[in-house]
Amino acid sequence: MAVDRLVAELRRDLIGYLQRRGQSVEDAEDVVQEAFVRFQRAGHDLAGGDARPLLFVIARNMQTDRWKSAGRRGTRLADDIHTLDAGPRALASETPAPDQHLIGRQNLAAAAAVIRALPARTRDAFLLHRFEDQTYRQIASRLGVSVSMVEKHIAEALRQLKISREG
Amino acid sequence: MMQRLIALFDGRPQTAEAWLARMRRSGVDERDQAAFLEWLEQDEDHLRQYEAAKADLASLAPLAGAFRGDLARLGRRRSSDGGRRVLIAGGLATAVVAAAVVVWPSLQPDHVGPAPRFYISAPGQIEDFVLDDGSRVTLDANSSIQVAFADNARRVTLVQGAAYFDVVHNAARPFQVAVADRRVIVTGTRFVAALRGSQAEVSLLEGRVVISRHDVAKSQAGDQAVALIPGQSAVFTSGAEQLVLARRNIEVATAWRDRRLVFHDAPLSQVIEEVGRYVDMPMTLVDPRLGKVRVTAVLPLSGEAPLIDRMEGLLPIAIERTADGRALIRAE
């Protein structure tokens, strides 16, 4: 299966990366396992273009945390025991933590207003991408603009949403 | 050099939101992934910011219903324009702000058939259109084309300005663009045709085009026709025998499609002339010697400040607005 192969490849590369940073094979495997859990919990998708860089930085952060805590209070093997055997696939069904939903119901109306107030093209590109799951290429062809222009529209929409969230 | 310059302006994303937009492309290449990782590692907080932006986007799901109407509108119209453009067809007259499609009595010498339509963009406005066959056209500011589709051929005439064509493949019904006294004949491809004054230029991005002196339906259409390969431009003048083929930086020649102008070691007089197509204020170079100053710049056509102000920020010039609505350009 494609996802299995993807996971296997990512695991191998991540373990290699952590080993190069001075981790033992066993520890590297643990860290990678944890990283996958953390990755899934944050709502990321293995098929996303950002999966690989995110996993690398998550694994590296976890390695750093481990080193820090090892210095202070020994290893945290007990914390890991339940996740050691379960593969990342088994964890894929875990629901994301509730605190991830940064936009609460009361703020959804504000977000809707921000989207409505976007320039026409930016709004159209954003709506097609977010609510119709259209790819940039499809949107580019629908709106008659370049793919990089679509990306700029999406970035602008996200920027406006962020400004309103931070109000 | 040019690629580096474009990269500088196009830039790597600098914020979590810009990175999220980049990563949601369907084909994220290794270079982008490496650059993204580099950005994540730059600051401990970057991962949190990125995940916050992503969670924000995910949490918008309940709004799908609220935008159902807008999405339906987008589904109906193949080309969206935010409601500014009004199409006029079949003699139905309507007010037009930025661009227009006008049905005209047939004047085309080449053919007899349905009445041609005119597609027109206003000064300062780049416009996208989808033709009846699904081919897409982007008109540069202050440009117009005439479109007449017949059963045996899809005929377009570039009346003025520049147009980018993304032609739907149909070998049985070739697509022809008349530029000055030449015909650009294609079956399916992407190219740009420009007519500035008497100078015409055809630049091929993808596929194959043939430039002929005759209509596609005529038997001699292939006589002395010149074929272009992607990356090539043909420059010619109406009435002149000569047609010059050049390998041009197509990126530069067609940058207006991405709503930006790219100048590579160009005289300032040319910059002023090209920018003039997007500014509704006549611009005058006060000192003619200034026109010879060579400039390399990427000028975004869209943005918050008026183009003329952004130009002043990017180029070594000072602009004075006169009471009668002109812009005088001096050395900074």
What helical percentage do the residues of chain A reach?
over 70%
> Which spans of chain B have pLDDT < 50 for at least 5 consecutive residues?
1-10, 78-112
Overall average pLDDT of chain B = 78
CATH class of the largest domain in chain B: Mainly Beta
Content of β-strand of chain B: 25-35%
Whole-angstrom Rg of chain B: 23 Å
End-to-end Cα distance of chain B, whole Å, is 26 Å
Our measurement of the CA-to-CA distance between the termini of chain A, rounded to an integer number of angstroms, reads 45 Å
Unreliable runs of chain A: 72-101
Radius of gyration of chain A: 20 Å
In CATH, the topology of the largest domain in chain B is named Jelly Rolls
Shape of chain A: elongated
Give the count of structural domains of chain A: 2
- Principal-axes geometry of chain B comes out as globular
- Considering residues with a beta carbon less than 8 A from a beta carbon on another chain, report the largest interface and each chain's count: A-B, 55 and 59 residues
- Class per helix and strand makeup of chain A: mainly alpha
Helix content of chain B: 10-25%
Q: Specify the structural class of chain B.
A: alpha+beta
Outline the biggest β-sheet of chain B.
Answer: 14 strands, mixed
Number of strands of chain A: 0
